[in-house]
Amino acid sequence: MWRATSRSSALYDVLVVGLGPAGCSAAVTLGRMQRPVIAVDSGEPRNGASLEAHGFMTRDGASPQEIRERGVAELGTYPDVKVRRGVVVGIEIDDGFFSARLEGDASIRTRRVLLASGLRDVLPPIPGLSEAWGRSVHHCVYCSGWEIRGMPVAVLGSSLAHARVAVHLKQLSENVVLYEQGDSGVDSQTASLLSENSIEIVAERVSRVEGFSTGSVCVHSESGVTRKFGGLFVFPEREQGSGLPAMLDCELLDDGRVATNQYFQTTVRGVFAAGDMARSRTSKFSPHQIVVAAAQGVQAAMVIDQDLLQRKFEFIQRARSVPPL
């Protein structure tokens, strides 16, 4: 359910960019505190191709689309939360506030900004890969591993991280194959590790991938050899789903995610970030899961609410610092 709003000239407490699990959860939490919130979403979720989501209590096996639609619909319970379909194309800091511009030149004025615009996966240019993505080609063992347990499974890539995933998958399948898909291939130590775990290494490149509605996938090698697997795990490059972090000059980490502190604050005062697009500088493990993003959205919303509340106490503190007449 998407509702238009005529309040674009009003001053909102919070602009939420993106209505994935982080953005929806944040908007609900702020709405329950009667904070004037406007949430803007492009309608292009990262997990739009996925058929099922897992690990989310009471929603295990539901599609990401269903979870998303229910989340947006629940926002209708809270009259202070306005939802708008569109793209925020720019945000400027204006005298302590933020002025956001949408496609079509609509504008929004707000006290705080929560970026929850997600990431975008950039898949390797292998024919058929994008068509099978989210169905028989996966990126998360915790999200999709159970469904392929006991079946032959393949991993695409030759780095130590790829080898780690291959060994991890041995908990679910006795038949794991790693396609190197690189000029240099795996190094000798990694090859030894894979061999110790009975993981086959295929040196030749993958030329084509063919996914099926059953969830299985055929991997075609350049030599003409075709092998069928219960699933193929690929780990694509990732980029920000929005150009706003760069426009706002938010610090980015080496993996391209927005740097935050433990309170989801970015390096720009008044701008917060949650979900898979962001990561705390001190975090070494930040999984890309719906339940994790939803939890981060709630936490970020609480921090923002407290940050806005603190303004009233700062006024009192300044008043008390003035010496009496």
Structure overview:
- The strands form 5 sheets. Strands 1, 2, 3, 4, 5, 6 and 18 form a 7-stranded mixed sheet that branches. A 5-stranded parallel sheet has the order 8-15-9-10-11. A 3-stranded antiparallel sheet has the order 12-13-14.
- Strand 10, helix 6 (188-196) and strand 11 (200-202) form a beta-alpha-beta unit.
- It has helices at residues 21-31, 64-74, 129-132, 141-144, 160-169, 188-196, 244-247, 290-321, and strands spanning 11-17, 37-41, 81-85, 88-94, 97-102, 107-115, 119-122, 137-138, 153-156, 176-179, 200-202, 206-211, 217-221, 226-229, 231-233, 237-240, 258-260, 271-273, 278-280.
- The chain is elongated.
- Residues 1-8 have low confidence and may be disordered.
- The chain is an alpha/beta fold and 325 residues long.
Q: Which radius of gyration do the C-alpha atoms yield? A: 23 Å
Oligomer: single chain
Q: Spans of 5+ residues with little confidence (pLDDT < 50)? A: 1-8
CATH architecture of the largest domain: 3-Layer(bba) Sandwich
Compute the separation of the termini in Å.
58 Å
Q: CATH topology of the largest domain, anyone?
A: FAD/NAD(P)-binding domain
Count of alpha and pi helical runs = 8
Number of strands: 19
What series of H and E elements makes up the topology? EHEHEEEEEHEHEHEHEEEEEEHEEEH
Superfamily (CATH H level) name of the largest domain: FAD/NAD(P)-binding domain
Largest sheet: 7 strands, mixed
Overall 3D shape? elongated
